[in-house]
C-alpha cells in the first residue's frame, strides 16, 4: 500500500518572518495519488468521526476519478466552509482517527484532500454558478458570524429562509478572522467562503451588538420568526496572580485581534499599535497559545518562550501547530507555571517568576495533575507577556436577555433540539459548549434542521 502524500511547507526560517501560508496545498498529481489510497469502504468509519457528516469516500472517489468539480459538489452538500475546515480542523482526532487505513499505516489525508478540492473550486468555479432554491419569505436572525452562525445561516438559506446575520465586529468569521492568523487561514480564503454564503441571499449586518444595539425581543418584533445564537467564547481567562495588570501583558485575544482583525502586523500601513517585544513569554498550551507564539516570532521577537504547566504530550494544541512552532524557533518551557509578574519603575513588565511543576500519578479519569515543586522558583526575563489560558463563553447576550439561561460555567442551556430556554431561540457553537470549528459547524447544522422543523409546524 502506498505511503500518505505529505503536503509541502515553506522553509521554517523563511516563513517565520512573514504572514504568508505555511502549508502549500496539494498539486493535482499529489491529490490524485492520495485519493487513490482510499479503500472506498462500504461502511466508512471516517464519516462517523465527522461532525457535519461529509460523504468522505464520495468526494475522494471523485478526486480519484479526476472530477474535482463533482468532488466539490459532494463536499458542499454538507460543509459550507470546506476551505476553512481543510486548513484548521483537527482531522487527526476526528475523521482521520477513524480511517480504517490508520490501523496498519497512516490514514488517508482527508483534510488535505478537502483543502485541495475547495482551493480547486476557488480557482475554477464562479460563485454565481452556485444555485439557490426555495422561496424566501420567513425571516430568521443569526447572532454571530463565527463558524456556528455561518453554517446555520447557510443551511437555512439553502432551505429557502430569509436569513440575516448580525455581527458585533466590523467583519465576518468570528475566531476564523480575528483569532486564527493569516499564515494558517488567509482572510481571502475566508472571504470567498462568506461570499458564497452571500450568494445564497444571506444578509450581513456588522457593528451590531445584539443585546445592546437591539434586543432579541426587538428582533421578534421586527418579524424574525426564529433566532440562532452563535456568539462564541470570547472572554479571556486571567491567571489571578500578582502583577497581571502590568503594561505589556496582553490577553491572547487582544494580541491576536490587533494583529489579525485590525492588521497591526502591517504597521504603519495600518495604524493599529502593537508592542512587538524582544523576549516574549506566552503562557498556555492550546491553539491560541500556538498562534500567539508563532505570531510574536513573525512580528520580530528575538526569543519566544512558551510556558506550559504540563508537558508537550498533554498540550491541547494540534500536533501540527506544535511541530511548526518548534521548527520556527519557539522554545517550549514545559512543567512550568507563572507565580507572579515583575515590572520596572514605570509599570512595564520585565520578568515572570515561575515555579517548576511535576505530574501526579493518573487520577480516575486518567489525567495527571500538575503540582508545584517546592522551592523551585526561577525568573524568566521578558518585555512582553501573552496570556493564552483559555476562553469562557461570551456573557453579553445572556446577561442582557431575560429568560436566556446559562449553566454554572456560563454556557447557554439548550435541549436536544438545540432550543434555549426561550421558545424560538436556538444556539450552538462555543456559547453552547463546543470547542472546535467543526463542532461549532456541526451544532450550527443541527440547529438549522431543528429551526426548520420548528418553523414548519
Ligand atoms: C486563536 C484561536 C485559534 C483556534 N484554532 C483552532 C483550530 O485550529 N482548529 C479548530 O477547530 N478550532 C480552533 N479554535 C477554536 C474555534 O475557533 C472555535 O471553537 C470556533 O470559532 C467557535 O465558533 P463559534 O461560531 O461558536 O464562535 P466564534 O468563532 O467565537 O464567533 C462568535 C461571533 O459572535 C460575535 N458576537 C458575540 N456576541 C455578539 C452579540 N451580542 N451580537 C452580535 N455578534 C456577537 C463575535 O464577535 C464573533 O464574531 C481556535 C480558537 C482560537 C481563539
Ligand atoms: S475509512 Fe479511510 S479508507 Fe475507508 S472510506 Fe474513509 S477515508 Fe477511505
Order of strands across the biggest sheet?
A: 3-2-1-4-16
The average pLDDT value, as a whole number, equals 93
> Approximately how much helix is present in the residues?
25-40%
Which small compounds were modeled alongside the protein? flavin-adenine dinucleotide, iron/sulfur cluster
- Rg, Å, rounded: 23 Å
Compact overview of the structure:
This protein has 17 helices and 16 strands. It has helices at 12-15, 28-35, 45-48, 56-64, 68-78, 82-88, 95-98, 110-124, 147-158, 175-178, 187-198, 216-221, 252-261, 287-298, 319-327, 396-400, 437-456; strands at 139-143, 162-166, 203-205, 224-229, 235-236, 249-251, 279-283, 303-307, 331-333, 336-343, 349-359, 370-372, 378-381, 384-387, 391-392, 425-427.
Amino acid at each position: 500500500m502506498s505511503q500518505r502524500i505529505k503536503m509541502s511547507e515553506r522553509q521554517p526560517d523563511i516563513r517565520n518572518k512573514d504572514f504568508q501560508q505555511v502549508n502549500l496545498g496539494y498539486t493535482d498529481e499529489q491529490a490524485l495519488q492520495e485519493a487513490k489510497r482510499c479503500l472506498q469502504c462500504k461502511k466508512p468509519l471516517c464519516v462517523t468521526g465527522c461532525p457535519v457528516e461529509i460523504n468522505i469516500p464520495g468526494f475522494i472517489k471523485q478526486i480519484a476519478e479526476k472530477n474535482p468539480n463533482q468532488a466539490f459538489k459532494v463536499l458542499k452538500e454538507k460543509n459550507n466552509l470546506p476551505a476553512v475546515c481543510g486548513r484548521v480542523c483537527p482531522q487527526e482526532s476526528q475523521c482521520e482517527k477513524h480511517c480504517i487505513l490508520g490501523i496498519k499505516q497512516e490514514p488517508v489525508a482527508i483534510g488535505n484532500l478537502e483543502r485541495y478540492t475547495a482551493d480547486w473550486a476557488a480557482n475554477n468555479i464562479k460563485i454565481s454558478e452556485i444555485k439557490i432554491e426555495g422561496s424566501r419569505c420567513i425571516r430568521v436572525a443569526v447572532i454571530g458570524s463565527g463558524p456556528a452562525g455561518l453554517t446555520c445561516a447557510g443551511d437555512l438559506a439553502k432551505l429557502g429562509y430569509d436569513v440575516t446575520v448580525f455581527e458585533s465586529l466590523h467583519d465576518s468569521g468570528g475566531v476564523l478572522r480575528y483569532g486564527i492568523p493569516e499564515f494558517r487561514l488567509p482572510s481571502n480564503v475566508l472571504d470567498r467562503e462568506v461570499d458564497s454564503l452571500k450568494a445564497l441571499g444571506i444578509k450581513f449586518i456588522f457593528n451590531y451588538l445584539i443585546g445592546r444595539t437591539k434586543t432579541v425581543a426587538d428582533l421578534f418584533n421586527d418579524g424574525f420568526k426564529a433566532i440562532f445564537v452563535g456568539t462564541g467564547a470570547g472572554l479571556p481567562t486571567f491567571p489571578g496572580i500578582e502583577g497581571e495588570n502590568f503594561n505589556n501583558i496582553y490577553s491572547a485575544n487582544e494580541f491576536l485581534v490587533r494583529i489579525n482583525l485590525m492588521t497591526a502586523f502591517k504597521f504603519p500601513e495600518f495604524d493599529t499599535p502593537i508592542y512587538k517585544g524582544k523576549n516574549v513569554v506566552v503562557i498556555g498550551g492550546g491553539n491560541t497559545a500556538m498562534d500567539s507564539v508563532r505570531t510574536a516570532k513573525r512580528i520580530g521577537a528575538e526569543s519566544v518562550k512558551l510556558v506550559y504547566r504540563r508537558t508537550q504530550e498533554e498540550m491541547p494544541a494540534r500536533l501540527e501547530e506544535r511541530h511548526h512552532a518548534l521548527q520556527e524557533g519557539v522554545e517550549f518551557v514545559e512543567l512550568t507555571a507563572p507565580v507572579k509578574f515583575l515590572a520596572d519603575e514605570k509599570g512595564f513588565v520585565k520578568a515572570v517568576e515561575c515555579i517548576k511543576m511535576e505530574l501526579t500519578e493518573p487520577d480516575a479519569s486518567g489525567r495527571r495533575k500538575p503540582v508545584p515543586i517546592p522551592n523551585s522558583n526561577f525568573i524568566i526575563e521578558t518585555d512582553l507577556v501573552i496570556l493564552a489560558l483559555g476562553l469562557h463563553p461570551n456573557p453579553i447576550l445572556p446577561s442582557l436577555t431575560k429568560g436566556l439561561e446559562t449553566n454554572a460555567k456560563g454556557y447557554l442551556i439548550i435541549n436536544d433540539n438545540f432550543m434555549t430556554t426561550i421558545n424560538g431561540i436556538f444556539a450552538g457553537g462555543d456559547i453552547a459548549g463546543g470547542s472546535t470549528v467543526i463542532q461549532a459547524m456541526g451544532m450550527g447544522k443541527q440547529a438549522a434542521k431543528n429551526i426548520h422543523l420548528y418553523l414548519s409546524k
